[in-house]
Design brief:
The complex is a heterodimer. Chain A is mainly α. Chain A is built from twelve helices and two strands. An eight-stranded mixed sheet of chain B has the order 6-7-8-3-9-10-12-11, with helices on both faces. In chain B, strands 2-1-4-5 form a four-stranded antiparallel sheet.
């Protein structure tokens, strides 16, 4: 709470000033705490930088990510203006890494958005309505969380065919269970709060309770779980692309680049090193951002 | 309050029952039934305060929550303004709900932390759609705000910025914004400091006079009840054991439980004799396994053989109309 002293005088010139509280919402308060966390701020900066690189890729680099130049195969970093060198088809590795951001970030973010929506609706239905709905949804949560993630993702990608859209969908459909479980637990606690009973007393519909009372109170949890879910989605995308089940070539993706680089790992180590670094940095940044958000959004730390 | 008995009651509850079932499933043992509210009947007249008192776990909150249908009652009828509130559905129920509101016990959990005070107070009129334009909405909010003595500048703030007493005022503003006839107060002051309790109780009394509201006032604090109530119902283990006007209950209590409850009010400077029979002892029995006959006989200092066999009826005692007790030992 930021306090500013205002001097107020009444008509007789007496000082009637009082401490005026610049009242602010929960999220402003969270941002204030978040801002003090240096590691989280650095992660946020890294993520924003990556998003910028992904969006503005054609402006950042002069090379075409997909155009093959067989005369310039497997160049070392720094030769002929290729900062990270070139791959076995003469394509600029730096350019491909940046274009790879597009795939990885969009897969991470969009798949987690899909997971948030499905997870919230499932979790709130199970937690709020209880009984049969709870039994059925809880069963599906158990089933989804007991299947090996990567295998299931592979199976889905085989079934749907490779492609960016299918990646979003399959990863989103796979990771809702964790969100749903957490939301269900949260809703079970929130349901006991008297403001929910007050809403019932006033004639509020289930829809109003779910979207007006429960959703705003679940959003911090959704933000945290899905920020922490992004790195695992990025990793899964990289694994799938490594296995040839991700985005179809020649579209650049960190996983498929590493897959292509494995033949040359002894002679041209840097080729597999750079996309690997991009994966590590992005995953770490999202993980640390998630940790920072968890601390900042904890209402117990507010005051 | 005999003159009021001539009028038609605003709220008439007959044979209200609320049973909770547990167990009975796979591996969870025998099915048990907890009779939280067992055959409770009462009337509430225009502009009066009916207090429901009793120990923790005697079913007073459950009675209120069943009457207002936060939990659906198992059995019984709830007549509000001559209509069976207990049977209403959909839009009719929504409309009837405008006339019966509730003030909650915990001022911390009764306000949504993510809503501004304005939106919290306006929730009843937002749901009922009882405003045509933003100005009318704002006018109603300000009116409610003024009636409960809440500073208008506070409307854009969030609940966590307020103290318990102010939060309870916000809760009261939400309850009165539609000017209902009946308000159920579920221990509205027991979570507050003693100094704030008096202010909130006086506010409730003042609002009652201004808006002619009828209160059902649930409390375990006999001092507050004495200040607020016109009539009193004493509950024990889901049953009504005594009913009467405030004077009947406080000046000439008939049921042994009521007497013990009144004895339990601490008085400064009062000596307690060593062999005092008039002190309540033991714990309230489990409502899942209530005693036979009169449910109070396990703790009653006057219990006889008959008490463990016969379930006493609520009947008029003391020759005063409206003063009823359920005990066989009263002549």
């Amino acid at each position: 709470m930021t306090k500013t002293k205002l001097i107020q005088l009444d008509t007789l010139g007496r000082n009637i000033s009082e401490t005026k509280i610049q009242h602010s919402g929960y999220y402003y308060e969270s941002f204030r705490i978040f801002r003090k966390n240096k590691v989280a701020m650095l992660s946020l900066f890294v993520i924003i930088l990556m998003i910028f690189l992904a969006v503005a890729a054609p402006l950042v680099t002069g090379f075409d990510p997909d155009k093959q130049k067989l005369a310039e195969r497997l160049l070392s970093p720094g030769v002929k203006g290729h900062i990270f060198g070139t791959d076995e088809f003469g394509r600029d590795i730096f350019t491909r890494c940046i274009y790879g951001c597009r795939v990885s970030l969009s897969v991470g973010i969009i798949s987690q958005l899909i997971a948030s929506v499905i997870g919230y609706l499932m979790g709130v239905t199970a937690g709020y309505f209880g009984k049969k709905a709870d039994d059925i949804i809880s069963f599906f949560i158990q089933v989804f969380s007991s299947i090996p993630f990567l295998l299931f993702a592979m199976a889905l990608m085989y079934a749907l065919g490779s492609g960016l859209m299918n990646l979003y969908l399959s990863l989103g459909l796979l990771s809702w269970a964790n969100t749903a479980r957490l939301i269900r637990g949260q809703v079970l606690t929130l349901k006991q709060q008297e403001y929910i009973q007050a809403c019932i007393v006033n004639g509020g519909s289930s829809r109003r309770i779910i979207f007006k009372h429960l959703l705003p109170n679940c959003i911090p949890m959704l933000i945290i779980t899905n920020t922490l879910g992004i790195p695992s989605a990025i990793l899964t995308e990289a694994s799938l692309s490594f296995l040839g089940l991700g985005v179809p070539s020649p579209t650049a993706s960190w996983g498929s680049m590493i897959s292509g680089a494995q033949t040359f790992i002894r002679t041209n180590t840097y080729y597999s090193l750079f996309p690997g670094l991009f994966i590590i940095v992005s995953v770490m940044a999202f993980n640390m951002l998630g940790d920072g958000l968890r601390d900042a959004l904890d209402p117990k730390l507010h005051k | 309050m005999e003159h009021k008995t001539l009028a038609e009651p605003v709220l008439k509850v007959r044979n209200l029952k609320k049973y909770y079932y547990s167990g009975g499933g796979f591996l969870s043992g025998k099915k048990t039934c907890v009779k939280a509210v067992n055959d409770v009947s009462f009337e509430l007249y225009k502009g009066e305060t009916l207090a429901i008192v009793g120990e923790s776990g005697c079913g007073k909150s459950t009675t209120a929550k069943s009457v207002i249908r936060i939990t659906e009652p198992t059995e019984g009828s709830i007549m509000l303004d001559g209509r069976d509130f207990g049977k209403l559905k959909g839009e009719e129920l929504k409309k009837a709900r405008q006339n019966i509101k509730m003030i909650f016990q915990d001022p911390y959990s009764s306000l949504n932390p993510r809503m501004t005070v304005r939106d919290i107070i306006a929730e009843p009129i937002d749901i009922a759609g009882s405003w045509k334009d933003k100005e009318e909405r704002e006018r109603k909010i300000l009116e409610a705000c003024d009636m409960v003595g809440l500073n208008r500048d506070f409307l854009d703030r969030y609940p966590h910025e307020f103290s318990g007493g102010q939060r309870q005022r916000i809760g009261i503003a939400r309850a009165i914004i539609e000017k209902p006839e009946v308000i159920l107060c579920d221990e509205p002051v027991s979570a507050l400091d003693v100094s704030i309790q008096a202010k909130v109780v006086n506010l409730l009394k003042e609002l009652q006079k201004r808006l002619n509201i009828s209160y059902i006032f649930i409390s375990h604090d006999m001092g507050v009840v004495r200040h607020m109530a016109d009539r009193v119902i004493v509950m024990y283990l889901g049953h009504v054991v005594e009913e009467g006007s405030k004077e009947d209950i406080f000046e000439s209590p008939k049921h042994p439980y009521t007497k013990l409850l009144l004895e339990s009010i601490p008085v400064i400077g009062k000596e307690v004799p060593e062999d005092d029979k008039e002190l309540i002892s033991g714990d309230i029995p489990s409502p899942a396994n209530p005693p036979s006959g009169c449910c109070f006989h396990t703790r009653c200092p006057y219990a006889t053989e008959e008490c463990s066999k016969v379930m006493p009826e609520l009947r008029e005692v003391d020759g005063r109309p409206g003063h009823k007790a359920a005990c066989v030992t009263i002549v």
